Amino acid sequence: MNPRYAKAMLLLCLSAASSGPVAARALVPAVWQQANPTVEGKVKDVNGNPLPGVTVLLKDSQRGAVTDVKGSFTLKDVKKDGVLVFQFVGYDPQEVKVEGRTSINVVLKENQKTLDEYVVVGYGTQKKVTKTGAVATVKGAELQQSPNVNISNSLVGRIPGIIAVNNSGEPGNDNSRIFIRGRSTLGVSTPLYVIDGIPREGFARLAPGDIESVSVLKDAAAAIYGSRAANGVILVTTKRGKIGKPTINYGFNQSFVSPTRLPKMADAPTYARLVNEILQYGGDAPRFSEEQIKKFGDGSDPWLYPNTNWYDAVIKNTSLQNRHDLSLSGGSEKMTYYVSLGSLFQDGIYKSSATYYKQQNIRANLDANVNEYVHLRFDLAGRLENRHYPPRSAGSIFRSLMRGRPTENAIWPNGLPGPDIEYGDNPVVTSTDVIGYTNDKNYVVNGTLGATINIPWVQGLSVDGNFAYDQNFAFLKTWVKPWTLYTLDPNSPDHKLNPASRGVSAPELNESFNSNRMTTVNVKLNYVRSFGKHNLSTFVAFEQATFDGDTMLANRRYFISDKLDQLFAGGDKEKNNGGTGFSFARRNYFGRISYNYKETYLFDFNARYDGTQNFPSNSRFGFFPGASVGWVVSNENFWKRGVPAVDYFKIRASWGQMGNDQIPSFQYLSTYGFSDGGVMFGGDLNKGIYQLRSPNEAITWEMANNYDIGIEASLLGEKLSLEADYFYTRRANILVSRSQSMPAYTGMTLPQENIGKVENKGFEVVLKHKNDINKFHYEVVGTVTHAQNKILFWDEVPNVPEWQKSTGRMIDAPLYYKAIGIYKTQEEVDKSPHISGARAGDVIFEDVDGNGVIDDLDRIRVNRTENPTWIFGLTLSAKYNNFDFTMLWQGATGASQYLHTESGLIGNFPEAYIKDRWTTENINASWPRVNDRDREYWVNRQNTFWFWKTDYARLKTLELGYTIPGMAIKSIGLQKLRVYVSGQNLVTIDNVKIFDPEAPMGSGQFYPQVKIYNVGLNVTF
């Protein structure tokens, strides 16, 4: 007999003997209940939702129970020292000691594998197995592997469908231009960014450590965002608290930054010879003698014959960048929290740099379970962005660097700055705060209050809603003051320097203040239910957003001192002020139906009825549907029998209509502007107004019809997986101007009309392989994205030759003369059609129309642009014991950039331009003869010689980490300590060689892209 039962019987007998029959009858149930109580309770998820179907087992026995639809369970006859085991598919099992309690409530957490099997979609989540749209996801942990502080620079190569171009590495202005599946419009191609369910700005400046995941909606899955979805949607989910004891995480990065590539310029002796050649071609006498050229090279007289490397004079070898991140997370079944603080600093690459970027950010995500039916969320995020620059732009500074003649001093031997190149521009000085500063501060606050209410009397029915308020204040202050440069007195034997004030004649101050506010309200009615093998998830919703702002600006000149940079200290003469404001609103009705049968036959339908004030009141709303289907073929018996090696195989297809309303407002109204002059009434000048444009009352949004077909497969026990998509987009109603303009004397232009049409098509492939060999785990992920667009119609000017038409070619395909070589001899020039004045050493233009004359009709439409049509990514990651390793290679092809520097007598040449240039001794050269700025026809007429293919491959990210063993750090109170080294843009393989392959079109006058060497640590307390 069980000892507990024997003890209970003995007590019962003793009690009966002393108290009589009545007492015995009263005591029996009390003693029995105290010995083996009945335990009741509820099981919920971390969001407070009841979990039906959870198995509750009494450990080391065969007894148990299952939770009902309300997550409740009852288990009788449970020992006081018993242990209950809670198990549910997709959740971490949990053991709870009874300890004599009769009521036990449990919260189960989803295990990481289950979380990986879900993707964030518009206004919700879906299982990967049941998703029917083209949705790609990257974890925040993967983005943290990049030491780049700008998130927009960390996506390309990791997410299929993302095409990105980074034109600048300037702190605070280093965003990548992102296209989802390339460009499909002649208008704005920017995707919509949604942060924690609310469309918001500021994606690039989010702290990487705060990001849980980033999802990209690329097809009909984006239709739920209606008139803002045509360019794709990027969804960001930030981290939330989890049940458990408080956990503190601290991360630190120290980075060392340098340009990926700077052009190597000609030295002084070489440049002196180039100047002589230029003068010789013009019939002028040489400027430098051989003796002078020798002095430039031997350094014997640095005052009169310097050999200046302007880049070395201005750019430092290494600049610093660092980041601190601190977070606190944890909670109970009633409330969870995630709170973070962060700061970063990016220095510019100039010596004595006035360029830097600072950021401080804070975030608090709170979740509270008021009761089993009500769940509240409160999110608050703040950010201060502080951009600091010299008053001269980066383009101006690098223009001076490119043009700096090596035969002139940037800095005199005594350390004083040399003369300017023009307009006071000596980049040694203009890159510093000696000339003043531009201080751009942007304060951002994002707040969201949300609630979810589970309707108790209808299973699966719930209501949720959000109220979001976003506010930002921007204060821009530009202070410019005179600066001093020095020129050498030619008549002084002791190198006397004459100072000269440059730039402005007296200090100037410009200030502006912007305040922008956005309020978003949405309410959603959800119904999620399973009926046997039928699974239904649906919702209908309403959302409204208002956006308004105000701007004030003022400026003054003629400050009596450069020590007081405040408006009141400026002169009254020529002072000015102004201001403006705007208001904008949206209203939307939308919903989704998701149905699947046995998670095998899948169907999704999204729809949005979208309204925006960009369009006339009688045509302000539009309907944007999206439908997708899927079939998990591997669930069929015939597949399991016939193709057992393929564990999972799904086919899916989608179609959606989406809009793009990113256009200037109020084009359906006549707009007016103030004239420069006016009418005098008495002694006052009253400004006149004039009409700027005629209204287009039929204006509407662009409409994109998106088609997608894809497959998903895994085999070999999920060691190998494949996902591939083919997509086609046809965009209509694109807003463009007609080819014939309004006569100039009217002062007006024709309104733009919705007449443009573009198609865009391509494919994406993701191939993954992962495996474990003893303690060694590795993964290989390869991605390929191809997207190419074509203009179908945009009212092109009539009678254009076929080879010059833009219709039928890519958006922004340029019109250039076709360069086919370099004239070796004057005889070649004379025997071929050529531009008047052409000579040996010039670039040969093809006579495209064959009429024997080179003119504008010989230009061709080149079907390449600055945006790549192919993006490749290869990620290699591995873990062994406490070591981890990640490498990301990223490449791009299909792009070209037009790059020609301002070189000649005006300034220096890149060495590559002139190393193998044409001369009478080198007639088989690969480069033309030296030229003076744009005097030659093959410079002032754009041609394909300067249109360089910029295909490249980069070692985008490299990281090696080591986690200190737990036993070694437990004694000092640490849970985890990881140290690592990493890098960004460490290696670039391309054929450009002179500039970075992502350089913007132009003359090389841009802040360069950067490579980053980084050391860091992560600590968990």
UniProtKB/TrEMBL annotation:
Family from the record: Belongs to the TonB-dependent receptor family.
Lineage: Bacteria, Pseudomonadati, Bacteroidota, Chitinophagia, Chitinophagales
Top-level lineage group: Bacteria
Annotated protein name in UniProt: TonB-linked outer membrane protein, SusC/RagA family
Keywords per UniProt: Cell outer membrane, Membrane, Signal, Transmembrane, Transmembrane beta strand, Transport
Places the protein is found: Cell outer membrane
GO biological process, one term: siderophore transmembrane transport
Signal peptide: 1-23
MF terms in GO: siderophore uptake transmembrane transporter activity
Domain TonB-dependent receptor plug: 130-233
Predominant cellular place of this UniProt entry's protein: membrane
Taxonomic source organism: Chitinophaga eiseniae
Matching PROSITE patterns: TONB_DEPENDENT_REC_3
A cellular component annotation (GO) from this entry: cell outer membrane
